[in-house]
Amino acid sequence: MRFSRKLFLCFAAIVASAVMLCGCGMDITSPDIQPHISAAKSAHAVPIDGYEQFIMPEFSGALSAKQYRERVSLLYDAVVYDGKKPVFIDGDPVKPIYDTAHNFLSTYIHDEWDESVREINTVHAIHDWLIYTTDYDFALYDSYKAGGTDYADNPAFNIDGVLLNGKAVCDGLARAFNFLCAMEGLQSVRVTGSFASSLHAWNKVKIGGEWLNVDVTSDAVHYAVSGKSYKQIAHGFMLVCDDTLKSFAPNGHDFVDTPFTANADYDYFSGEIIKIGNKTYSRVVKSQSELNAIFSAVSAQKGKIGKIELKLEFSGKTQVNSADMYSAEIRKAYGKVDNIGFDISNGYPYFRFPNGVYLFLIYK
Fold first, then answer.
1. What are the distances in angstroms from CA 292 to CA 285, 301, 334?
2. Angle ∠(68,102,11) on CA atoms, nearest 5
3. SS3 348
């Protein structure tokens, strides 16, 4: 099924203005995708290698900007819509796009994963890698807000912005997610609508026969200190249903173009643990005492820990998608930290996501 090629730029990345997290600079030469997707011990057999081949058409001479853009679209359509493996002629300028995608999948998807978690782990790896390696194109967004309109050939809206340049907006990230999923044999579609009153694009992916939303752009947390920008990976908008996205206030998602319904959240945080020092803690926190214990453990590490991502699930708390119901509890937990390391005069440094998920920043 082919969808509209209307461009979506939105600034859906979460932004704060007065905090900093030490060690969050992105070093893509690291053997692991931070924080927890590890390279496989041996090269993964990417499913697309077994698909029917599509021979990319020959050309002569240098491609014009329009011809190049058409060739990128041809590559995208062959992989995403037609489910074929592209075969390139020598010197094809779009081959590096495909090679980057293939190299990532070969390196970070594990053949030894159990079938019961293969789809979830694959989506998780794609989600984290896209955030880790792609910078949001703030300059393009500023140009758009200033009245700019001529973006038809801008790579930030397409897979080459992500896979070649490492810079994109939400539309480019959504298309790249589709592209990578298609290469792995996962069904994924690009969803369009709005978020925080701005045009937006994200994805739905089919896992275990059920559709779930994945908003890569909104899980890239951006913040700045003294004019310097930082980025951190979060998972609050990964594998959630339609109602969860729509009900998250004050910035809910509005759907315009989506052919499938996502009926229920996948509880990513259940069973997940966080290790602090020599102790482990559940990422699903059920009480104030549990939350206090985690913050106290972080404080005891004397600045070695910068961020923790937790899901708060206290008894009696309702409508967590429509209000910050844990602000008092969070203040109490921060009181267990000897030196928070941030200016808290304008509020405690954390980010709120759907379903009681929080990303906490503690030490510089």
1. 10, 15, 8
2. 65
3. coil
Burial of 95 (0-12, 13-18, 19+ CB in 10 A): middle
Tokens 């539309």: give the residue: 171
CA–CA distance, 213 with 205 (Å, rounded to integer): 7
Q: How far apart are CA 330 and CA 308, in angstroms?
A: 13
Largest CA distance in the chain: 68
Q: What is the pTM of this model?
A: 0.91
CA-CA-CA-CA dihedral for 206, 254, 180, 26, to nearest 10: -130
The SS3 call for residue 324 is: coil
Helix segments in 184-215, DSSP class H? none
- Count the helix, strand and coil residues of the chain and give each as a percent rounded to the nearest 5: 30, 25, 45
Q: What is the torsional sign of CA 234, 240, 246, 248?
A: negative
Low-confidence ranges of the chain (pLDDT < 50): 1-6, 11-30
